[in-house]
Amino acid sequence: MRKIYFLFCLISLNLFAQTTDEVKVDLSNPYKTIYTHLHFLQPESYDEAKAARTIYGKSPEKSIEIALKIKQVLDGKGLKVNFKEVPLNAKYKDTVSDGEIKSQYVLFPDRIPEIYLGKVDGKWYYSEETNEKIFALYHNVFPVGTDFIKSIVPGFGHIELLGIELWQYLGVIIFVLIGVFLSWIINKIIFRFLKALESSFMRFSHNSLSKTLDKLSRPSALLIVFYLVEIYIPTLQFQIDINSFLIKGLEIGQIVLWIYVFLEIVSVIIEVFVSYTSRTESKLDDQLAPILSRLLKVLVVLLGVLKMLTVFGVNTTTVIAGASIGGLAVALASQDTVKNLIGTFMIFLDKPFQIGDWIEGGGVEGTVEEVGFRSTRIRAVDTSVYSIPNSKLSEIVINNKGLRQYRRYQTKLGIRYDTPPELIEAFVLGVRKIIEIHPETLTRSYNVEFTGFGDSSLEILVNTYFLSLEWGVEQSSKHKLHMAILNLAAELGVDFAFPSQTVMIEEFPEKKNMNMTYNIESSRIDDIIKSIDKKFK
Q: How far, in Å, CA of 519 to CA of 426, rounded?
């Protein structure tokens, strides 16, 4: 029994010795060097002399100081090393940090590129640049007075509660109170500054921007406060886990606030743009405002999400590359959508029409109501709506009748073949006078002429232009013109012909001649022509 007891003790001592000697100083690769440095600075395995062996070319005292400073800087920034990403390869070459391939490994290339390892005589140490810059980095991370604050804390202040000392709880409360006060002060300052800038915006916008500026000043003040808190949070000297949590929370809050601020800036820009475009003649730029607003807001949110991913350690380069490949695949699968989007930009750049223009093209004719991302809505005369893809609309020939200076109207009046020349001339003169005194016709350019002999009528061409470009006003103008022509024809005794055939029989018992009797008395005709002014008005 005694032999078994001694054997058990020997085995226990052997296991204990193996456990204590399990972690040794190893500088064979980046992983081993970083693990050696951080392991021997933990409370349960603290040995600063072993940790200092990761520093090359310095005295033992200086190496210990540098090793401690590196650990404090990483803790103060809340940067925890993810050992799953640290290379185990002793021949590792860095191809990420810069264009030159070197035997080095940068722990946090985006956050602290100055701290990195280098290979010397087959072993990995913290680089000479790290040794030189670590003291400056320490002073940047820990504000002046950090060590003094901890030194004046009384003994009971170091009592821990849930892993946090009492003086640190008090520091958090003080930070919150100061933050609220600074936020209120900075908000007032920023609002007054933006209010002073409002006069510049009022040149383009007649609407007050006070509400929008108030929404913009508050998150801007919080942004400044969050930035200040992030700078001074290391003075509380939390553990790395708590620092990592607080700093990550502050960075997420800053990104959210930046997104909100930029969205409000977009709203201000769009509001000014809408106010400006409302005073321009073009209506197409009015339609551009909502499209531009959506595009800018999507861009702001997208950039914010990419920035947010970096906080969680996601490589944005990989995300962008994946998005590019995915975007290419989506683009190939939806070529029509991409073509329509390009067509939309071409329409806004070329401006072949405006909202409200009457256009004709591709077998469709109507009024442009809306230009969207994908298609354009055109309302026809029968009030039906056509949705034409913008890619097609940007390629077809468009007749923009809304850009006409005048609306042309042309018709032919057919009168009977037996109408005397005197009445034809009087009728032509009368129609010309009607056009001249018509309030909605262009008097300097028109034609009323006896132009030819039709199959069943003498043809008189009427070509004129209406001043109004609106379709409804044009129809009203035609009505007035037609009624005046009919009244003139009735008074002169001019009959309009219709398609017919006349059989002329010179002698027919007990039948009278079919020829009509026309009154061509000159004085009567002159009186009718002179009376047009009074009757038309």
A: 12
SS (H, E, C) 365-417: EEEEEEECCCEEEEECCCCCEEEEEHHHHCCCCCEEHHHCCCEEEEEEEEECC
CATH ID of 404-536, from 3.40.50.150, 3.30.70.270, 3.30.70.100, 3.40.50.720: 3.30.70.100
Low pLDDT (below 50) residues in the chain: 1, 3, 5-21
Contact in structure between 494 and 423 (CB atoms under 8 Å): yes
CA 31, chain centre distance (Å): 44
What pLDDT does residue 463 have? 93
Whether the model pTM is above 0.85 = no
> Which is nearest to 473 in space by CA: 448, 438, 519, 520?
438
Question: Using CA atoms, how far apart are residues 40 and 152, in angstroms rounded to an integer?
Answer: 28
pLDDT at res. 15: 39
Q: How far apart are CA 398 and CA 362, in angstroms?
A: 8
pLDDT of residue 5: 43
Q: What is the pLDDT of residues 127-158, one digit of tens each?
A: 888 888 888 888 888 877 666 676 676 666 66
DSSP state of 156: G
